[in-house]
Amino acid sequence: MTLSGSRLLQPGTPWQNWGRSASDHPKHVARPSNVDEVIEVVDFARTHGLTVKPIGAGHSFTAIAATTGIRLDLDAVDGLISVDGPLVTLAAGTNLHQLPALLAPHGLALANMGDIDRQTIGGATSTGTHGTGSAFGGLATQLRAVTLVTADGGVLRVSETENAALLPAARLGLGALGVLVDVTIECVPAFLLSAVERPEPMAAVLDNWHDATAATDHFEFYVWPHTDTVLSKYNTRLPIDAGRRPVGRFAGWWEDEFMSNSVLAAKLELGRALPGLTPAVNRFATRLVGDRSYTDVSHEVFVSPRRTRFVEMEYAVPFDAVPEIVREIHALIERRRWKISFPIEVRSAAADDLWLSTASGRRTGYIALHRYHREDPAEYFRTIEQIMQTHGGRPHWGKMHNRDAESLRAAYPRFDDFVAVRDRLDPDRLFGNAYLERVLGA
Q: Domain range for residue 94?
């Protein structure tokens, strides 16, 4: 079947996200290559009573992109559109891993990144992707303008000078306001990161949480369940001409490929087959990972290869509460006698003013829990989610959680303002799906 005589609309095919935690089988799939074709698909969906959802790289662990209507694959809506000083406009389907090559000729880089770069810029900003650093906001805070194709087929530009009142909603819009077709991001001059990674006693790191985040540009640590050890990562920003001292080829392969992927996968399969061995295996692993220092261009330090599939729940919590919550989770794992192979990731971010940002209005700590994709995470995630909620936690929009609109409204002071913008831009829920109905209401 074709769309209005064109080749845009094809029969729907089954889809799964990267973590295998969400799937769909839409009626149609469309692969536009430009904004006019996106408009054509949106007009068709509206006329024929179908929903339409853009899909990025599938790295969200929720069903935020699932649809029974038209799946809009934006792979071909990608690339660099323009550069104006530090302001870089990118098509929404551009993957984060494409950015270093696109930005390097202009001497630019993203101010901050997470540790995965497979996502599209549109998907990453729409779901609240972030890195770490108590003085740095999530990726969406770096946006200065966005362009949406709205439910009526119009093109809406939102910036500090055009439709500015919509900017706090549109920069992190969950795909609920329209199809994001391009973003303008404020970059920074390219820089190096000096990285120090080492195992440390958990008690000391938790006691030093405030000082470490204040003294280090980008600090994070990984708690190994069933041990008293964490892997700490201290990344300090340096000028681009300070001199690279990258990880050697063998050392990089050993840590980033062999230990963090091959050995991890084997450890997870062993833990699934013989869960009683997990504590001993975790203790052994803490003796083999980390304890290195190097200096390299920013994206080479921020990003790590992630080839072992997992599912994830992450909560944003008040910054000062992080040590208490980590201790509570660590004790709970032992008390429940769970066997948890994956480390717990702890990061931070600055407060921002985006209405649905998990760091909206408060300095934030992030605590992320993972399970191997072949394991059932339900009890582990649900039980710890109760702890997070008790502490005023907000779930990452692209990671597994059980919250609904009623509970989320209490967590976000501007929740109803966002819903009002959604009602204005998409009153008939052309861009709706079951996930958005749950978290935003019908």
A: 80-189
